[in-house]
């Protein structure tokens, strides 16, 4: 199976790592919002599994991995439990969380694109769905806490590294050279681009002739 | 069929009762928000059918019952019409609505868990999807009126009774003893727990070391 | 195929026209919200494709047209690019956009109802899903920018013309007389009703005994 970019055990470990990191970001936001222990668990689950759930519904992979694979369900609950007890310590390592989140983004956009292609989508559609897999959980998280998704608001170039990574995978698939090595290149490229975007505050342009000083709509 | 916990006619009547109650809660919220008659109907439909729609998409039951069963579609419209004309009277029996909502929660989490299991999900995933069936419509309702879902915000122990009920069903399924009787026990347990949680204001804990007096994020 | 109301080339052109118009409305809202170029593209895609995506998930048309048809994906990006550079000019032709949006609403509710019926839904469910196809993208757009959907809030009779058009299609289907001609009648009826509703400010009634002067909930 193409989806197994890496030997199954390693692939599974990488998936769980991405899920864990996204779940942590959801749980920390829930603590900041003063949600109770169940709200923390729900937000951890939604953030970690929302993107993959959307992908699986679109490609018809039923039941979605989020409901078919027990470890995908337990991992966010574990992250929620850790944040519940240790949130001051976890929040303090904010920089590490951002690095891990970049790793999650990289892993999800590459594995999402690959899985979509396996299920028969075209190259462009696969790359688009790979990006949606990577950013979808965060969008759901922000909608649930009643905020404009940071994806739309932050101008942080969150989506661009995912776009590049997914496009790389699509190119490799089109050329018939997607291997664990080239997949790894796509993951690392995405990861490094995201770290650079954060480090140097790369910002995407606003609409032409629109100064960022323009007052936002209330 | 397992899904028919009770003789088909009774099962169907119970489903319709749950749908009616949830639709009423959505329609009342729409009136409070000053929505027009169509907004009231939309919010009634979404609240009543959203949870089951999500469940059916996840398990691949296409078309979902919300679109396959005419009475499931007409019942929320009936509830919307009643609220449209009689909303002051309906709102006055707020306590009764809360009791009925507890009944809807109990019925939906038990029938949702059972249906998910029938479609091949594991026991844990079935219970999780049963809870999602029971609370999903209310989450969609709150997102549409631009509020943080009361599930996350209220600390009202809304999810816990559903969790207990769904877990009971999963245990009965695992032991091979799910019958109308044991299903009824799960429904009644959920219902009573929810009533007790409301009566005695049971509250779920906030994150460790976080006092509820801490100012919420703006 | 019923879905081809018109010769395939014309049907496809009409679909693309509807997608283009809805994408433009999403992109303009993103500019007003000061989103960057990626936010503009995302909101254009979601607004244009969200309704059809929902319809296709409900009827089990996997992968959804949004991910199976490259031109459906490229058109919103083109609209986003035009808005990115020319938004003051585009916004100035606001009246034209409203007319085009009415055309998109008309096309989507008719083709959505027809496609749902083709996939085996009943007449009522098909009409309901046709309306959801027509209004769904706008609802998602508003949820993402953290506003109560204008569908619920505006009392602008946005849904009513779509309801009438979808009901007409259902009647024609039930009588076995759905042809390009009768489909065209449904499209034109929806379009004209929507224009009249805008021109004469038709407003839907609030709940009985509830004056529009009542202060809205904060």
UniProtKB/TrEMBL annotation, chains A, B, C:
Keyword Calcium applies: no
Species for this entry: Streptomyces antimicrobicus
Alphabetized Pfam families for the sequence: Gly_transporter (PF03458)
Keyword Nucleotide-binding: no
Taxonomic lineage from the root: Bacteria, Bacillati, Actinomycetota, Actinomycetes, Kitasatosporales
Domain of life: Bacteria
Residue ranges occupied by any Glycine transporter domain in the UniProt entry: 13-87, 99-172
Major localization class: membrane
Protein name: Trimeric intracellular cation channel family protein
This protein's UniProt keywords: Cell membrane, Membrane, Transmembrane, Transmembrane helix
Bilayer-crossing regions: 12-30, 37-54, 66-86, 123-145, 157-178
Subcellular location: Cell membrane
Family: Belongs to the UPF0126 family.
């Amino acid at each position: 199976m193409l989806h197994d970019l890496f030997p199954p055990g390693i692939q599974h470990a990488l998936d769980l790592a991405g899920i864990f990191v996204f779940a942590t970001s959801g749980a920390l936001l829930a603590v900041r919002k003063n949600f109770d222990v169940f709200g923390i668990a729900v937000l951890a689950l939604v953030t970690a599994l929302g993107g993959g759930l959307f992908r699986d519904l679109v490609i018809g992979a039923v039941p979605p991995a989020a409901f078919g694979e027990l470890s995908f369900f337990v991992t966010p609950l574990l992250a929620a439990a850790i944040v519940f007890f240790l949130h001051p310590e976890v929040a303090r390592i904010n920089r590490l969380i951002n690095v891990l989140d970049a790793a999650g983004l990289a892993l999800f956009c590459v594995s999402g694109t690959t899985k979509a292609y396996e299920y028969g989508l075209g190259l462009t559609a696969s790359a688009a769905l790979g990006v949606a897999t990577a950013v979808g959980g965060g969008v759901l998280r922000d909608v649930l806490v009643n905020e404009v998704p940071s994806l739309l608001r932050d101008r942080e170039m969150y989506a661009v590294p995912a776009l590049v990574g997914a496009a790389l995978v699509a190119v490799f698939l089109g050329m018939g050279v997607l291997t664990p090595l080239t997949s790894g290149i796509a993951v690392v490229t995405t990861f490094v681009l995201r770290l650079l975007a954060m480090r140097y505050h790369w910002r995407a342009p606003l609409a032409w002739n629109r100064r960022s000083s323009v007052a936002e709509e209330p």
